[in-house]
Amino acid sequence: MSSLVRLPKNFYQQNTFKVAKGLLGKYLIRKDKKQILIGKIVETEAYYGPFDLASHASRGKTERTKIMFDQPGLAYIYLIYGMYYCFNIVTESQNFPAAVLIRAIEPTAGIKQMVRNRKCHPELSRRVTPPHCHSSTELTMTMRLTNGPAKLCQAFKIDKKLNGHNLFTSKILYLAENTKEKIKPSQIQSAKRIGIDYAGQYKHKPWRFYLKNNPFISCK
DNA sequence: CCTGGGATTTTCT
DNA sequence: GAAAATCCCAGGA
After folding, report:
1. What is the DSSP string of A77-126?
2. pLDDT tens-place string over residues A91-131
């Protein structure tokens, strides 16, 4: 059925924006005990270099940010707002701090387990219209499962324990492509990044990328 | 429809 | 001691 091929290290060892766009349509695979969770990446953000004021790396190499300075293809996972995790993938080359944040995923396999991991029950059937969306775009349960960077970490059981994890050798967390699926440049929309009002000039950069008309993205 | 606030704890000043 | 690459819910119009 699925002809998923793992992404090699040299996929990550490229320009960050190329990787951020290239990850759209690729698959995140998480194996936890006997469960396998799979989803298609539909939204990303680029955090590029020591000068990008939105990037943690703009304040230099610290205990937390050292992963961003490490080799491409590592997972950079950090705690945010005291209660959530965000999942990034290190890009470029050693000593150049850059990464791609995974902001939204379209669940493909293991959806029942994701619901359990997210701990939201029957109220998932509640009617919800997200901000920035028209009232006609009502989201189903599945669409709200992984449409945000912290939500997808909960659903895929990604936390600090996987910080620094190697995605091109790991058996439990990695990325793959379906060689039959190709994303055309015309399917990709760019926009401002979310939640970085402190970033000065850099808050206006269109360094967020998502698949046009995909209902699983976090916002327009 | 929209706005605002609370949760919760690591990280850096 | 302040802020944080978020999410969820309550309340008012």
Report:
1. EEEETTTEEEEEEE-SSTTS-EEEEEEEEEEEE-HHHHHHHHT--GGGGS
2. 999 999 999 999 999 999 999 999 999 986 434 444 454 54
